[in-house]
Amino acid sequence: MLLAANIINLGADLGAMGAALQLLVGGPIGLYVVSFAVGSALLEVFVSYERYVAILKWTSFVLLAYVAVALVVHVPWGTVLYRTFVPNFSMSSDYVVTVVAVLGTTITPYCFFWQSSQEAQEERLDPSTHALIAAPREAPAQISRMRLDTYVGMGYSNIIALFIIVSTAATLNAHGVTDIQTSAQAAEALRPIAGVLTFALFAFGIIASGCSRCLYWQVPALTRLARR
Fold first, then answer.
1. Which one, of 74, 57, 73, lies nearest residue 65 by Cα?
2. 48: which of 89, 101, 122, 149 is 20 to 30 A away, CA to CA?
3. Residue 154 and residue 118: Cα distance in Å, rounded?
């Protein structure tokens, strides 16, 4: 089940990255998907993990653009706060699918493997650290660090997700756009701050976040392959 979920997620990320690049330059999306797949695998093999992670970590800040949108456009924050804690429930198919999508991407089991894969890679990079099974005295400090890292990372990602929802509602939904079928339509949520660079900013955010996820889904398999 985990293998199937990871393959589907990886395919969805590569598809989104291909669609984002198509917004900028046009052309065949299938070619872009294959290029991103091959390119990300090559980067993971031939670029050091430490350098690659550092680059992707800083590119994630482009997602703060959604926070800027929510601060620029009119947002009824009282309603947002109230509906965040007192939502309207519906049994319509669109509502149920949205709830499953939000919960599924927030508490999905692959996050546990993502975290453990990252910890294993960083332990190999730092000669001063040891496997906790061999150095149990280091466990309290290391687990405390992991806990803080998890809180900060999950907090940041969920705050960004909330602002994506708020900015999209305040720009697209407020103007009657309720059926988003393409990346171009989704990108319009950034127009209040990006203007003519809307598609570029949207594409950069999709590609940067997609590369990050591809890295942690592919690293375990590539590490085993490299050892062989």
1. 73
2. 149
3. 15
* Short-list 175, 200, 171, CA closest to 62: 200
Q: Phi, psi (5° rounding) for residue 86?
A: -130, 75
Tokens 């332990």 sit at which residue?
123
Q: Which of these ranges, 6-10, 63-67, 103-107, 189-193, has the smallest mean pLDDT?
A: 103-107
Tens digit of each residue's pLDDT (9 = 90 or more) over 110-139 = 667 777 777 777 777 777 777 778 888 888
| Closest to 218 measured CA to CA, from 29, 66, 56, 93 | 56
Tokens standing for residue 34:
């294959």
Cβ neighbors of 113 (< 8 A, separation 6 or more) are 2, 216, 220
Spatial neighbors of 2 by CB under 8 A, at least 6 apart, are 109, 110, 113
Helices 110-125 and 2-25, packing angle to 10 deg: 80
Q: Looking at the predicted structure, is the pLDDT value of residue 198 above 80?
A: yes
DSSP 152-214: HHHHHHHHHHHHHHHHHHHHTGGGT-----SHHHHHGGGHHHHGGGHHHHHHHHHHHHHHHHH
Distance (Å, rounded) from C-alpha 115 to C-alpha 150?
8
pLDDT of res. 69: 92
Could you give phi then psi for residue 201, rounded to 5 degrees?
-65, -45
| pLDDT bracket for residue 9 (50, 70, 90) | confident
- Nearest Cα residue to 41 out of 223, 205, 202, 206: 223
